[in-house]
Amino acid sequence: MGIASWPARERPREKLLAGGPQALSDAELLAIFLRTGVRGRSAVDLGRTLIDRFGSLSALFGADVAAFNAVPGIGTAKYAQLQAAFELARRALRETSATGDALASPGAVRDYLRLTLENRAREAFVAVLLDAQHRVIAQEELFQGTLTQTSVYPREIVKCAMRHNAASVIFAHNHPSGIAEPSQADQTLTETLKRALALVDVRVLDHFVIGRGAVTSFAERGLI
Fold first, then answer.
1. Structure pTM?
2. For the residues of 139-202, what is the DSSP string, one character each?
3. More confident residue, 191 or 78
């Protein structure tokens, strides 16, 4: 039975208009995005199938086109639309994280970095450059690596900070394994970067390790 034949109060679009998007399940939100189902399956059914197939919304957004197209009833056009929606969310968070004092809204910075890095298949290293009032100047992805590691060069980090005239910096990198636990190498690198940047009067405020569904802050752990 198609969604159009459901009682109005149970249809995802009507539920959203009546109670806001927070009133909908993940599958119902996806159903609004998908718009239509396929023979014998409603858009909500397809939404549930996507979540079951990939295990989470974050994994769904991080899926490549081949994996997405392997789901019956889903095609390249829907994949492009989903990626566009994801990029809009990421850009909205980037705008939020770049507005005002980054330390007054650490959640926005953390959420932006998580959206940017969480589902990467390879390690990537990002720097968020801040001015003297802790406002975001720029966000740069400086290095990319392999499935297990990336090479970070302190000299390039210093050059980046000087280029933006930054007063402080927040680092982030992902663990493709999904485990957000800092390694000894991560801690050693952070100390090296702190020393190098201190020579040009730039403070390292935090270093986030992004896993699957989790983020670890060096500052919160007392490692900075």
1. 0.66
2. EEEEEE--SS-----HHHHHHHHHHTT-SEEEEEEE-TTS--PPPHHHHHHHHHHHHHHHTTT-
3. 191
